[in-house]
Amino acid sequence: FMGISHEKLPLVSDINKVKFCTIKEMFNLEKEGPYIIAGPCAIESLEYAEKIAQLLKGNNIKFIRGGAYKPRTSPYDFQGLGKEGVKILSHVGKKHNLITVSEVVDGSEVESVAKHIDMIQIGARNMQNFELLKRAGASGKPILLKRGMSATIKEFIFAAEYIALQGNKKIILCERGIRTFENKTRNTLDISSIPIIKKETQLPIIVDISHSLGRKDIIQPIAKAALAVGADGLMVEVHPKPELALSDSRQQLDPEEFQELLGALEA
Ligand code: PEP
Ligand code: MN
């Protein structure tokens, strides 16, 4: 067995060959980064989604996130609104001219989500779901690929390679922390992965400061650290009433805390 030839394909790790899109190119943006992708953990209602869309618009944020298909650890927890969630996110995104990001957990949903949502998120739990990666990559949509919670950087890059092999050059990586023995944070943010990935690939990478920490009291210094080591942007969860959120209640910022974070980054 000789393996397949990669010669004309866009290899993520072949940094000198095929050019991948920057985030700016992917979405025809005017501004250089850092880019902020913000929004609730899950889309829960039109009313909440509308509130967050207005908050983002008012702060000149271009991207809105929100899960419709939620990969929950417990099957008894809120699983997301599914199709209805996609519909709501797409509606507020179009209304406020925001770029929408939402996770797909099953290959059979890729095409229907791709029809309505601007960027498909592959979550940490599915980073090595290779059939899902192939199907998402083949949609031609920009893909936000999160690092698996037990994945090495090499495995992370290989996962991106699966998407790239579909001819997809619109890939954004997302470091969201890995599992270690430390339990003061939800995951341990591997800050070194950012400069390493910058060195070894041409792919943009952002840092999810919400899922890596699982708490919000230290979000400002960590956000600054992520940008200081060269991240192209941040993902952060914001909810109109975090205490009532149906998922990740403890880590989601309220609108005021979100604005404080933006102010701290500006300074
Ligand atoms: C998310 O971003 O909604 C999410 C579930 O994060 P992760 O896949 O990183 O756990
Ligand atoms: Mn979440």
From TrEMBL:
Keyword Transferase recorded: yes
GO MF term set: aldehyde-lyase activity; chorismate mutase activity; transferase activity
UniProt-recorded name of the protein: Bifunctional 3-deoxy-7-phosphoheptulonate synthase/chorismate mutase
Full protein stretch here: 83 to 349 of 349
Domain of life (superkingdom): Bacteria
Keyword Transferase: yes
GO process annotations (BP): aromatic amino acid family biosynthetic process; chorismate metabolic process
Keywords assigned: Transferase
